[in-house]
Amino acid sequence: MPRSNPIRNLSRLVVICWVALQEYRALRRFSRGAANVAAPVEFAARLVALGPAFVKLGQILSTRPDMLPPAYVEALSALQEKGPRVPSEQIRITVERELGKTLEELFASFDHVPVAAASLAQVHRATLPDGTAVAVKVQRPDLKRLVGRDLDAMTLGLRWLYRLSPRRRPRGWR
């Protein structure tokens, strides 16, 4: 993987912080009862737009009713199995590249509509040539780069925060 690009990291960090600030404000208004009732669904949609690392964050938050209002937990729960779908042609390309054969050679049948689509992968029903029913889990394309990009940006942000408040820096951070 290429070295981290500081300008790209800064640009991505600005986007992440901007979305986080807007969503924090929307959550505070929602909690006071003075907000758009669609705010929880819009929050889930923004996490999807930010990418797989943030869909995973939304999935984690959906398990924390102690931290978020019920409407937010419900909206984020949809990300557990109803995440954004990868187009079937991209799934075909990924499976064939990873397994070295065409779908027709690998499976007697392959359902192009996923059973579930989540943050990192989606699952498809298929049947092996011997008739065995299987579930095929296909990782999202470009996942390593997308997650790496977001982790690099967040690391940059954390480093800045720790410079501003050095006493709160975890051990091992420079």
Short description:
With 174 residues, this protein is α+β, with helices and mostly antiparallel strands. The chain has helices spanning 6-31, 39-50, 52-61, 70-77, 88-99, 103-106, 143-164; strands spanning 109-110, 116-117, 121-127, 133-139. The protein contains seven helices and four strands; from the N terminus they run H-H-H-H-H-H-E-E-E-E-H.
List the main descriptive attributes of the protein structure presented here:
single chain; 174 residues; alpha+beta; 2 domains; 4-stranded antiparallel sheet; 7 helices; 10% strand; globular
Shape: globular
Which percent range describes the beta-strand content? 5-15%
Helix and strand string, N-terminal first? HHHHHHEEEEH
Which stretches are poorly predicted, pLDDT < 50 over at least 5 residues? none
Protein architecture, described:
With 174 residues, this protein is α+β, with helices and mostly antiparallel strands. The protein folds into two domains: 6-83 and 149-168, no CATH class; 88-139, no CATH class. 54% of the residues lie in helices and 10% in strands. It contains seven helices and four strands, in the order ααααααββββα. Strands 1, 2, 3 and 4 form a four-stranded antiparallel sheet that branches. Strand 3 and strand 4 form a beta hairpin. Helix 1 runs antiparallel to helix 2 and helix 2 (39-50) packs across helix 4 (70-77). It is globular. The two termini are 23 Å apart. The mean pLDDT is 90.
